[in-house]
Queue: 2 jobs
Job 1
Amino acid sequence: MYHPIPTRLVDIQGNIGYIDIGNNRYPVHLHFLDSAEVGDYILVQMGFAVQAIRQQDIAEKTHSSLIEIRSKIEQQLAEDDFTILLTSSTHIQNLHLNSIRYILPSSLHFLYGPGCPTCLTPVGYYQNIFHLAQKQSVILVTFSDVINMPTPGGTLHLLRQAGYDIRVVHSPYDVLRVAEWNPKKEVVFAAVGYDIMAAIVGVTINEAINRDIRNLSIFPSLQKREILLREFILRSNYHIDGVVCSTYDLPFAGADFYHFIVKELKRECCCTGFSAEEVLSGILDMIRHVRANDRPKHNGSYCTCPEIGNIQIISTINDVFIPADTRWSSGELIKNSKYVIRDEFNRFDAEKKFAILPDELLLMPGCSGREVQLGLKLPFDCSNFATQCHPGNPMGAGMLSSEGLCYTWYHSSYKFKVQ
Ligand code: SF4
């Protein structure tokens, strides 16, 4: 859901573009793009194109072989250690798959953070939507990973089997149709995500106003990625030398998004695509740079995104939301890290409409998600990992979400470790 993969635009009709995946055409909203041409590669999130990339930009990116990069890293790290923060689960997966992670020098250390939106959201939030879904007047709409989220009371999936009206959508825009087709019901959209989700929820609210839809509200757990990343680096128990960022944030925020890591936090930073070669090339450049004793720099040479972000996305977020302090599942209160709906849009705020009280439960009992998120434990170190807790029976969000660290570890690294 959160990893935009460049996909070729094969047709455009008005504000809808079409992409071709496996000989099937899929419609994509072009709302956030100033211009797009057939043949462009577009980054798609939740049914919306969030950035267009010209074909030659991708073609220009060439990489040397993995083995060559690996031995250069080894030469550079002959004397000192180097600690890397990986910020994207896809980077982690690609380094762990094919065992690449295990052939790297032991002086190269990895941390993983700040975590995916589903994992960062406290269990108390999921308990609240669990209670909300049991109101007879409500249709609860959400995404597929939320439906199976364990709470002390059970999952939304079990409630649905018991006859409650709970629906899964692929884009927040689909929620409008559910509301229009069910005018006698209150449709509540449980929206969990980062900034781009906030933008799409903002567009959805504006469209609901245009269509005069009055039976729709949003119960948000929307996170400001920049703040969470900054806090993770500052609060880490380990010194982080370099940060590998993904192109995930850049379609809307632009390549400048990560400059705070270099300018304010004085760490190396590279923004890469998702392949193992791209990630290792970025790491090698960061290590070389530190060894040369230069000032930290942002290395964006592997990034296909433009420097400037998508202004429409940023202004949609600012029009509809304001930042607020909150406590995420790791327990720390983080200032301005959450998007809340502005007072002007109160009628779309489910928290106010249903007078929902905050639920302080952070994690499921027995889950070590906090330690895993903070880098104090690896998923392997949790006594439940791959025993009581596995993707078929997740005990926490980290094992449920396809972007969760425990899930990623289970699928990409666990098999290797067992072998
Ligand atoms: S393995 Fe399961 S119980 Fe352990 S930290 Fe991960 S999600 Fe929680």
Job 2
Amino acid sequence: MKISISFIAATLIIGSFIGCNNTNTTDNSGATATSVKKDSAGANKGIGKFTNIRLTHPLDDSMVVRGKNLYDSKCMSCHKLSDEKLVGPGWKGVTDRRTAEWIMNFITNTNVMLDSDLVAQQLMVTCVARMPNQNLGDDQARAVLEFMRQNDGKK
Ligand code: HEC
């Protein structure tokens, strides 16, 4: 117990320097993760029903537009499109640091991920906030993912 409290304190201190978008993965946290092996450099798909998202090229323009509208109405209050933290991490680079499956599972299964996915838990510690479930449907989450891909310069 002592160890995990001091880990959290250390992460909070580190987090205040590096900002919320840097995951600064330290694998020996006190958190118990059920199905997480490593950060997105590996193939962490998060926890949820999405195990195989097919990304298309070129981007689907109508999804990008729908995704942007959803961002404007439901996400913008906490997420910038740059790499700057607001309440949550800035979205710049999110499609590079996370798999598509992780992002989809996180958006649609937020509470389970925050309770059990090691990467999500670390974000929660560095952000000192817990993202509320936004109640997006699968199609809406997929549209937001397409908008994130566009924001990251994907074609
Ligand atoms: C009330 C603030 C808030 C709102 C609104 C919000 N988020 Fe979040 N989001 C967070 C926080 C805080 C985190 C970091 C994890 C945590 O601490 O819960 C986060 C993390 C994320 C992440 C992971 C980012 C990364 O760098 O890995 C994604 C993806 C995400 N949010 C998507 C969304 C989407 C999509 C919406 C809109 C439908 C949304 N969020 C709305 C606060 C919010």
